[in-house]
Amino acid sequence: MLLLGPLAHVLVLFVFGKPELAPILTGFVGLFLTGAAYLSLGLFVSALTQNQIIAATTSFALFLSLWLLHWLGESTHGVLSRVFTYASFVDHFDSFGKGVLATQDFIFYLSLIGLGVYGATQAILSRRWKA
């Protein structure tokens, strides 16, 4: 639903110019995958706690750290730099904005989405079995 808002901007772009369609479409795909990854990870964190404020704070800290890993990767060298850069959302989202559909970016986002949903499911099931 939130992705429908920027469509007005895209329409204005097409009225007053001739932009390339591929970067716009892949940008929307990247926004959708990033949002789905954030939602699934937030759902997982929320399933782990009983308190909504703790879940929101922990989710925000997790999202911020995943976003800032890009700069940590730039300031280190070697294997650690590659690990931080790969775990960051910035580099994976950047290729979508350029119009590139890279398989590694899809795998990254889909694995995070699957991990979040699986973790939330397991957390809820374990809570049910404890009761």
Describe it.
The protein has helices spanning 7-16, 21-48, 52-75, 79-87, 89-97, 103-130. The protein is 82% helix and 0% strand. The protein has 6 helices and no strands. The mean pLDDT is 90. The protein is an all-alpha fold.
Morphology: globular
Rg from Cα: 18 Å
Low-confidence runs: none
Give the SSE order as H and E letters: HHHHHH
- The portion of residues assigned to helices is over 70%
Summing up helix and strand content along with how strands pair, one would put the structural category as mainly alpha
| Average pLDDT reading | 90
What's the number of helices?
6
- Major sheet size, sense and barrel closure: none
**Distance linking N and C termini:** 37 Å
Q: Tell me what portion of residues adopts beta-strand conformation.
A: under 5%
Number of strands: 0
Give descriptors for this structure.
single chain, 131 residues, mainly alpha, 6 helices, globular
What's this model, at a glance?
This protein has 131 residues and is mostly helical.
Task: Please render the helix and strand layout as text.
Elements: H1 7-16, H2 21-48, H3 52-75, H4 79-87, H5 89-97, H6 103-130
Helix pairs in contact: 2-3, 2-5, 2-6, 3-4
